[in-house]
TrEMBL record:
It comes from Rubrobacter xylanophilus. InterPro entries: Thiolase, Thiolase-like, Thiolase_C, Thiolase_CS, Thiolase_N. The active site is at 89 (acyl-thioester intermediate), 336 (proton acceptor), 366 (proton acceptor). Residues 258-379 form the Thiolase C-terminal domain. Keywords: Acyltransferase, Transferase. Pfam families: Thiolase_C, Thiolase_N. Gene3D superfamilies: 3.40.47.10. Residues 5-249 form the Thiolase N-terminal domain. Transmembrane segments: none annotated. NCBIfam families: AcCoA-C-Actrans. Belongs to the thiolase-like superfamily. Thiolase family. It comes from the Bacteria. This is Acetyl-CoA acetyltransferase.
């Protein structure tokens, strides 16, 4: 049986909707992440035995197995296959899990888990022609499937989270993202400025370097008139891609490559589909149990900031050191290009552990319809 390790993890900058990456096709965006990944490691792309791609809205330019299209655009040999999957917001985190599992099974020596989403060019829900209402009426009735924003409001009610709490976490997310001096996981990517001139984007476009608390407090709730969820305390709609190179440790070391981290736990859970976003709580507990550690042992924690209320409810239950939670900011600041975020958070965590000489990291993400993914890694 193989021991899966992470050799490298990268991402493009995350751009705002209709921002710098508005004219970049998602297959081209992912191709850049794939080629940049193997180039950074110095790996012959012909050694990659599978590319597993996460993408949520698989239609239009993200249809037709966008992972395989990107592999060809990246100039990989035609013998390198690819598959595209959808575990919603956890898609590329799941892609990394599948890559690691294939290596652990002894099926291959090198695999890439990756993801992409251009929410500008392929709008969310465009794969459900007619929108959310096209879901099976039995599910809407019997399972009370609701919009994630309403789930976020119900979380606020259950955990007694105030608007001030949510806005404060959001402002801190921007502050931490703005305070970063370097972005080692980001591959500079060509894009366009507002006038259409070509630029090189080397950091996340959505980060606000100064947050005005008064203006944030004036934003109107989106899902309830008396609610607390606003555009300011929710993740940004974004464009981006990410890629993680996973290898069998023995094979990589024999090829002269240095593993950066190994997996201690890989978890996917189901949870209440109405509350929908609370799966991060049982997923974290299960991942920590599988890894044989406590939350106090962790040096770096990535909790996807789909909504501020999700992170705050998770924190109320797990009681972590919040200085270790999203130390470089989260999706409220840098954005959430659905299928790419999982790999992006993994890249951020891996390089964050290296930058701080940390050892143990946890990544956990809430997912639509009541699921969550979690990963624990140990830096080597």
């Amino acid at each position: 049986m193989g021991e899966p390790v992470i050799l490298e993890a990268v991402r493009t900058p995350f751009a705002r909707r209709d921002g710098a990456l508005r004219e970049t096709r998602p297959d081209e965006l992912l191709a850049g992440a794939l080629s940049g990944l193997v180039e950074r490691v110095g790996l012959d792309p012909g050694l990659v035995e599978d590319v597993i791609c996460g993408c949520v809205t698989q239609t239009g330019e993200q249809g037709a197995n966008v992972g395989r299209l990107a592999v060809m655009l990246a100039g990989f040999p035609v013998e390198v296959p690819a598959v595209t999957l959808n575990r919603m917001c956890g898609s590329s985190q799941q892609a990394v899990h599948f890559a690691a599992q294939a290596i652990a099974a002894g099926d291959m020596a090198y695999a890439i888990g990756c993801g992409v989403e251009s929410m500008t060019r392929v709008p969310m829900f465009s794969d459900i022609h007619g929108g959310f209402e096209r879901l099976n009426p039995r599910l809407l009735r019997e399972r009370e499937l609701i919009h994630q924003g309403e789930s976020a409001e119900r979380i606020a009610e259950r955990w007694k989270i105030t608007r001030e709490d949510a806005d404060s976490l959001s402002a801190e997310s921007h502050r931490r993202a703005s305070a970063r001096k370097e972005h080692p996981e980001i591959l500079p990517t060509r894009g366009l400025d507002a006038e259409g001139g070509e630029i090189e984007l080397a950091s996340d476009e959505g980060v606000r370097h100064r947050v005005d608390p008064e203006k944030m407090a004036q934003l109107r709730p989106v899902f309830r008139e008396d609610g607390i969820v606003t555009a300011g305390n929710s993740s940004q709609i974004s464009d981006g891609a990410s890629a993680v190179l996973v290898a069998d440790r023995e094979a990589a070391e024999a090829d002269g490559l240095r593993p950066k981290a190994r997996f201690l736990a890989r978890v996917a859970v189901g949870d209440d589909p109405t509350m929908q976003l609370t799966g991060v709580i049982p997923a974290t507990r299960l991942a920590l149990k599988k890894a044989g550690i406590s939350i106090a042992d962790l040096d770096w924690i990535e909790v996807n900031e789909a909504f501020a209320t999700v992170v705050l409810a998770w924190a109320a239950e797990l009681e972590p050191d919040m200085e270790k939670v999203n130390p470089w900011g989260g999706a409220i600041a840098h954005g959430h290009p659905l299928g790419a975020t999982g790999g992006g958070l993994m890249a951020k965590m891996l390089h964050g552990l290296e930058a701080t000489d940390g050892q143990l990291g946890l990544q956990v993400m809430c997912i639509g319809h009541g699921m969550a993914t979690a990963t624990v890694i140990e830096r080597l």
